[in-house]
Amino acid sequence: MQTNSYIERLKEEIYKGDNAQQICNLIISAAVSVRSSDIHIEPLSNYVRIRYRVDGVLEEILEYQQFLHPQIVARYKILANLKIDESRMPQDGRISVTIDEKPLDLRVSTLPTVSGEKIVMRIVDKSKKIPDLDVLGIEGQNGEILKRAISLPNGIILTSGPTGSGKSTTLYSCLTRLNKPDVNIMTLEDPVENVIDGVNQSQMFPDIGYNFASGLRTALRQDPDIIMVGEIRDRETINIAIEASLTGHLVLSTIHTNSAAETITRILNMGIPAFLLPASMNAIIAQRLIRRLCPHCRKPVPAESLQPRMQESVKRAISRTNKKELASRVPAEILQNPKFYEPVGCEHCGNSGYSGRAGIYEIMEIGPEIKKLILDNASGVQINETAIDAGMISLEQDGIMKALNGLTSLDEVYAAAKEG
After folding, report:
1. Mind listing the pLDDT tens digit for each residue in 102-139?
2. How confident is the model at residue 419 (pLDDT cuts 50, 70, 90)?
3. 188 Cβ contact list (under 8 Å, min separation 6)
4. What string of DSSP letters covers 232-274?
């Protein structure tokens, strides 16, 4: 990672070791300056290390001696309104700060370890606007399907993927499009990540019985048009969501599965009768985050120079891609002489070769063919193959099209598509 003035000042203060307050401030400022999303402060056997997550990758910044750690932990606990004298139990809190005139929320989590308390802070920039679907990378056919699905008066839209794949951001983007004076939108979240004016957002408190299922029941008594549920975790929640969709509500939520087709299998495995899904589901999204190549230093690579296995995978994916979609998203001259790009590294990207992130998506519209397969209890593999044959763009195909346009590398695409 490229060093900067904040990191240099942080090193100086740690070397002095006499001002925990200044060290804590600089840890946050340095993280913001390198576009970090998370700060990890981890006590190990002989020292404590600080790592920042930048564009989805954890990078070690520096180390400090153990004797400083109790002061730093205590300072963050004070800022987050946590119990200073409790070190045996995990604690969660929130810090609000302003760095370089940017209002930030830091979600603080402490965890007791054998070497001391670990602190992780998730950084949320409150000044950032929620990006539109096009900016997220939901383009072409995917964009058309999703916009059509959220325009319906009722039904369920689910987005799936591993933790940190941007599912909540996708739902927030949908809600921003739907947020109008004549619509009552409610959200049930744990935690509330972004505050949207005009939307009724409710924080869950599972410890006192206010969870997604009970919150959803309450939401239905609040005359909602649209409900966003943070996550489908159990049969009770999906059951109420289906009931809500069948009684005239649009429901958006997330679920942890690897693909759009697997989401159907997962819901059926929760014990939901198959006949309910075709009537309630509008669309299912599977998504991953990929790192964007630095436009200043990316290096073109001819397709024929790729490893044979990679060439074969790319050819197979392109041959099955919806031809109309492929032609609309990738210029003809690139398709005739395909090339991809690889990271190099320069001063603009901190020598990583990447700068920023984007999403790759597959969006399955629950049309007549898919509905019939659900009623016939078809496997997830069969549903996925049928959907791709019918024109659905898979995660792999969406990623390859973005790689052909120079947005990312094939290594990023295939690493992300295998996550789950």
Report:
1. 899 999 999 999 999 999 999 988 888 899 999 999 99
2. low
3. 202, 204, 212, 215, 216, 219, 227, 228, 229, 230
4. --SHHHHHHHHHHHHTT-EEEEEE--SSHHHHHHHHHHTT--T
CA angle 243, 248, 249 (to 5 degrees): 75
d(CA 71, CA 212): 37
Distance CA 298, CA 353 (A): 7
CA distance 382 to 387: 9
- Three-class secondary structure of residue 152 per DSSP: coil
DSSP-assigned letter for residue 205: B
State how far the Cα of 263 lies from the Cα of 158, in Å rounded to an integer: 8
The one-character DSSP state at 129 is P
**Degrees (nearest 5) of the Cα angle 394, 175, 32?**
85
Q: What is the pLDDT of residues 295-349, one digit of tens each?
A: 999 999 998 889 999 999 999 999 999 999 999 999 999 999 999 999 999 988 8
Task: Judge contact between 7 and 30, C-beta under 8 A.
Answer: yes
Q: What is the pLDDT of residues 352-362, one digit of tens each?
A: 899 999 999 99
Which structure tokens are listed for 39?
């700060």
Read off the pLDDT of residues 34-93 as tens digits, 9 standing for 90 and up. 999 999 999 999 999 999 999 999 999 999 999 999 999 999 999 999 999 999 999 999
Q: Which two tokens stand for residue 294?
A: 């630095």
User: Residue 163's pLDDT is what?
Assistant: 87
Measured in degrees and rounded to the nearest 5, phi and psi for residue 352 equal -90, -20
Strand intervals (E) in 226-378: 226-229, 250-255, 281-293, 299-302, 339-342, 354-365
- What does the alpha-carbon distance between residue 17 and residue 23 come to, in Å, rounded to a whole number? 8
143 touches 152 (CB < 8 A): no
| Beta strand pairing call for 339-342 and 299-302 | antiparallel
* Residue 183, amino acid: V
